[in-house]
């Protein structure tokens, strides 16, 4: 799933390559991704891209009075092309959902919004203001700009597990499953710790980890074309997706908690005092 660093990199790339270009045509290959009908998406035709921005994990193209907002969800992606084919794509065939021409079709550049797999979550809105998108209107503070006091306020009184708070966009915007694993490992905190019970020292560690992990990931990602971002993300992960491999800090074996449709990883030595966390495959619950 694209998270804050990857969306930030895509924003930077589009600011360089898409701003001041005119949308000549939009092809909708998967109508189900469109979540709005008024204004119609055809009103974007002839609009000039004025600015590109990020709201949490949402991508926002400001087209001068109208915004094309995208959430890539779990398996969505943006693919840039210097020349896009002129022929409209066939609806419902392959991963292509939306094609945006930023020049004459067949000779000009643009990008595709694609989604792999059968579980569909890619969403596109055409709105007059980003705040009209419910997910943006309900976003919590952005993880990349939050100071220590702001983080303490986010955590205060929360009875949820720390992993849950870090990945719930209405509480903290921008993090997903992968980078929350990385932040918790860097902070030496259990994913199952109760968010509102962290000590001031633990909150300080968590904030420092947020800054280090996200700034490093953004630094490695910004400037790369979209096609290279997935590989760059994987190469920088220290615990997420590395079940069974040695922890790069202590050498212990990276462990996994598995749910019905996802999993997360952690280091027992660095984060839980050597204890294994329970999941649906275990009968024991361990904090």
Write the layout of secondary structure elements.
Elements: H1 4-17, E1 25-28, E2 51-55, E3 58-62, E4 67-71, E5 76-81, E6 96-101, E7 110-115, E8 123-127, H2 134-137, H3 148-155, H4 162-167, H5 177-187, H6 200-221, H7 226-236, E9 255-258, E10 263-266, H8 268-271
Antiparallel strand pairs: 1-6, 2-3, 3-4, 4-8, 5-7, 6-7, 9-10
Helix pairs in contact: 1-6, 1-7, 5-6
Global structural class: alpha+beta
End-to-end C-alpha gap: 27 Å
* SSE order: HEEEEEEEEHHHHHHEEH
Share of helical residues: 25-40%
Mean pLDDT: 92
CATH architecture of the largest domain: Alpha-Beta Barrel
Lateral strand order in the biggest sheet: 1-6-7-5
Q: Which value, in Å, is the CA radius of gyration?
A: 20 Å
Q: What best-fitting shape do the alpha-carbon axes yield?
A: elongated
Total strands: the figure is 10
SS field, number of helical segments = 8
CATH topology of the largest domain: N-terminal domain of MutM-like DNA repair proteins
What is the CATH homology-level superfamily of the largest domain? Answer: MutM-like, N-terminal
Number of domains: 2
Uncertain residue ranges: 283-287
Highest-level CATH class of the largest domain: Alpha Beta
Biggest sheet features: 4 strands, antiparallel
- Approximately what portion of the residues adopt beta-strand conformation? 15-25%
